[in-house]
Amino acid sequence: MDYYAHESSYIDEGCSIGKDTKIWHFCHIMPGSKIGERCIVGQNVLVSTGVTVGDGVKIQNNVSLYAGVVIKDDVFLGPSCVFTNVITPRAFIDRRGEFRQTVVKKGATIGANATIVCGNNIGRYAMVGAGAVVTKDVPDHALVIGTPARIIGYVCECGERLEEAGEATGEAAFCSRCAKKYRYTSNGILDY
C-alpha cells in the first residue's frame, strides 16, 4: 500500500488510491472511485462509485462526493461542503439515470458548508465562499458568495483577492501578494 488509511475507514476493492494519500477516520471509499496522489481525505468523507479526485486535493471533514462529481488537481473542499447529483430527487423514484456531472477545476476552493447544485462547474482557481449556494457555473478565478452565489470579485492563483484597475476589457488586475498580473477578456473571465 502506497497510501495511508485509518483502520476505521472502509476501502472497498476496486477503487484506486494514489501514492502518499492519507485517508482519516470513518471514511468510505467505494469501488470504481479514483483518488489521486498526495491527497488528504478528512474524517467522515464518502467517495462514491464513479467519482474521480485528482492529485494534491484536500477534502475536509464531512464531505460526500456522489456519482457525477469530478475533482481536478489541487482543489480544496472545505468542511461539510455539499454536492448534489439530481435536480429533482424523490425517495420513491429511481433517478440514477439523471445524475448530472459537476466538475471542480484545477486549484479551485470551495468554502465550508457551501452547496454546489449538480450540473454547475467551478472554474480554475475560483473561490466559493463559505455557505454559498452555487446554482450556475462559476468562471475561472471568480470569487462568489451568497445564496444564490454571485460574483463579487476575482482571485489570483495564490488565493489573494485581486486589486482591480477596472473591469473593462484588457484592463489589468494585480495580485498584491505574488505580483501576478491578469487581464479581463470580453466574457469577463480573467486570463493571464
Keywords:
192 residues; mainly beta; nine-stranded mixed beta sheet; five-stranded parallel beta sheet; 0% helix
Mean pLDDT: 94
How many helices? The count is 0
Output the strand order for the largest sheet: 1-4-7-10-13-16-18-20-21
Taken in chain order, the helices and strands follow as: EEEEEEEEEEEEEEEEEEEEEEEEE
Low-pLDDT regions: none
How much of the sequence lies in strands comes to 25-35%
Secondary structural class? mainly beta
Report the count of strand segments.
25
- CA(first)-CA(last) distance: 40 Å
Structure characterization notes:
The chain is an all-beta fold and 192 residues long. The chain is built from no helices and 25 strands. It has strands at 4-5, 10-11, 16-17, 22-23, 28-29, 34-35, 40-41, 46-47, 52-53, 58-59, 64-65, 69-71, 76-77, 82-83, 102-104, 109-110, 115-116, 127-128, 133-134, 142-145, 150-154, 163-164, 172-174, 181-184, 190-191. Strands 1-4-7-10-13-16-18-20-21 form a nine-stranded mixed β-sheet, with no helix packed on it. Strands 3-6-9-12-15 form a five-stranded parallel β-sheet, with no helix packed on it. A hairpin with a 6-residue loop joins strand 23 (172-174) and strand 24. The radius of gyration is 17 Å and the shape is globular. The protein starts with a strand and ends with a strand.
